[in-house]
Design goal:
By secondary structure, this protein is mainly alpha-helical. The protein has six helices and three strands, in the order ααβααββαα.
């Protein structure tokens, strides 16, 4: 069990890195140089919503990145619009600009292509559903591990 557990944790990390490589390759293909792969994930996780930076942090897992720094860069490069809350001037909310919306439309096309190509490899939706169920159980297990001090 321990060997499989350690292999799973390594695979999760490697898969995340490889996924970021796929996004980077698409950015290169599109000729986009003013945003990185992690920032692209942040944009995709915002979508058409308006979020606080805290909500954004909870929504995604940006390994080794500072969300506030990335939000600042996304605002500077015109992918995000940042506005102070009318009710609490300390809180800011972010939403995608037209430039940001255009990029996530292109990334969504990448995901569509990937899903079609993945289906051609013999991986079925129910295979992914089963993997996702196991990963969610693993996530709950790890959450419990950090919730309880032993």
């Amino acid at each position: 069990m321990k060997e499989q557990y350690l292999l799973t944790s390594r695979l999760i990390e490697r898969l995340h890195r490889r996924f970021l490589d796929v996004i980077k390759a698409e950015l290169d293909r599109l000729g986009v140089e003013d945003i990185n792969n992690v920032q692209t994930l942040i944009l995709f996780n915002i979508g058409e919503e308006t979020l606080t930076v805290g909500e954004l942090t909870l929504r995604g897992y940006y390994l080794g990145s500072n969300v506030s720094y990335n939000v600042k860069k996304l605002v500077e490069n015109d992918y995000l619009i940042q506005e102070r809350s009318a009710h609490d001037r300390r809180m800011t909310r972010v939403r995608l600009s037209e430039k940001g919306l255009g990029l996530i439309r292109e990334i969504d096309k990448l995901y569509e292509r990937n899903a079609s190509e993945l289906a051609e490899t013999g991986i079925k939706p129910e295979d992914l559903e089963q993997i996702n169920k196991v990963l969610m159980r693993l996530e709950r297990f790890w959450s419990l591990q950090v919730s309880f001090v032993r």
